Amino acid sequence: MGNNKKSIFLIDFDITISKKDSTDVLLETHQPEFKQELRKRYRAGEYSIREFIKYGLGSLNITKEQYIQTLQENVIIDETFIDFVKSGAKFKIVSAGARLNVQGTLSKYGINLPDSEVISNDLKFSGTDKNEITVENPFLDKEGYYGVDKREAVENYKKQGYTTYFVGDGPSDYKALEVADFAFVRKGTRAVKFCEENGIDFFEFDNFNEILEWRNNTSY
């Protein structure tokens, strides 16, 4: 490997690691009509990504066990991510969804990530007769739009002297892709167009083995 400098991969979760958006899956399973309403409002610009997550996950009247079970039954991942984890590359997951979506889904694949490895929103489950879910934003962006400041996550690692790679697919990743040392973008996603239009140097990947191969062949 050509790197003598320390490097880290900051990786988005939904559609980048998972095949489907995990919040969409939860809503589709338990609140399909409300999901359509939320989508409509988000597309019309009435709701931010943060509000979509807040109202969406907040509408799920299910227990934590049911929540995790829904993820494990319905969310599948790009299994080459398992090889990526085994490779020993340093990484953290950065998601505008929820930490439990990441941990709950990945635990099915034997990937058990502690809280410190997932930069995302926290969920609080409460209530005896009604299962209330509250979304908390410990990494809130200044605009309060995305819910998680992915750009700040990249900048924090750059300040610590890391070569920082960002891996993503969509709008909540754009600000991070702009400041990362190098960008990896899931093939055929909106982020490809974004990088092309904004002159961002990127590698379009189909699976995580291609990222590992790139890393092993490049002294970046």
UniProtKB/TrEMBL annotation:
Superkingdom field? Bacteria
Q: Which SUPFAM superfamilies match?
A: HAD-like (SSF56784)
What InterPro entries does the record tag this protein with?
HAD-like_SerB (IPR050582), HAD-like_sf (IPR036412), HAD_sf (IPR023214)
Q: Name one GO biological process term.
A: L-serine biosynthetic process
Q: What is the lineage of its organism?
A: Bacteria, Fusobacteriati, Fusobacteriota, Fusobacteriia, Fusobacteriales
What is the scientific name of the source organism?
Answer: Leptotrichia buccalis (strain ATCC 14201 / DSM 1135 / JCM 12969 / NCTC 10249 / C-1013-b)
Q: From the UniProt record, which GO molecular function terms apply? A: L-phosphoserine phosphatase activity; magnesium ion binding
Q: Which PANTHER family match?
A: PHOSPHOSERINE PHOSPHATASE, POLYOL PHOSPHATE PHOSPHATASE PYP1
GO terms for CC?
cytoplasm
Give UniProt keywords alphabetically.
Hydrolase
**In its keyword annotation, does this UniProt entry include DNA damage?**
no
State the protein's name. HAD-superfamily hydrolase, subfamily IB (PSPase-like)
The answer to whether UniProt assigns keyword Glycoprotein to this entry is: no
